[in-house]
Design goal:
This protein has 104 residues and is an alpha+beta fold. It contains two helices and four strands, in the order βαββαβ.
């Protein structure tokens, strides 16, 4: 006689209302033709929540089409329709609670 044990399903998608709303669980989309890709160095990110907070704030800047933040390297890759004003990026990173060092 063999026993059959069913393992619970594991949901890898973030729950509704999770700390980052899932923004830190996706890769940045490929740049559209004519888009500008800029990599910034951000100080203070340590986890997925940090990545989501930074990506969420930067994604609200007009013209931004995708953002990918990586806590391990401190790099944030931003794809936008045109070059962004660095002060707008600095303000967004500040709002998230981190420090923009500059372009990587």
């Amino acid at each position: 006689m063999s026993a059959h044990t069913e393992l619970p399903q594991v949901d890898t998608e973030p729950a509704a209302g999770s700390c980052c709303g899932g923004s830190c669980h996706t890769d940045a989309a490929p740049a559209a033709e004519g888009a500008v890709t800029t990599v910034y160095q951000v100080k203070g990110m340590t986890c997925g929540h940090c990545e989501g907070a930074v990506a969420g704030e930067i994604s609200e800047i007009e013209g931004v089409s995708s953002v990918k933040a990586v806590a391990a390297s401190g790099q944030v890759t931003v794809v936008s329709a045109a070059a962004l004003d660095e002060e707008a990026v600095r303000a967004a990173v500040d709002e998230a609670g981190y420090e923009l060092v500059g372009r990587a």
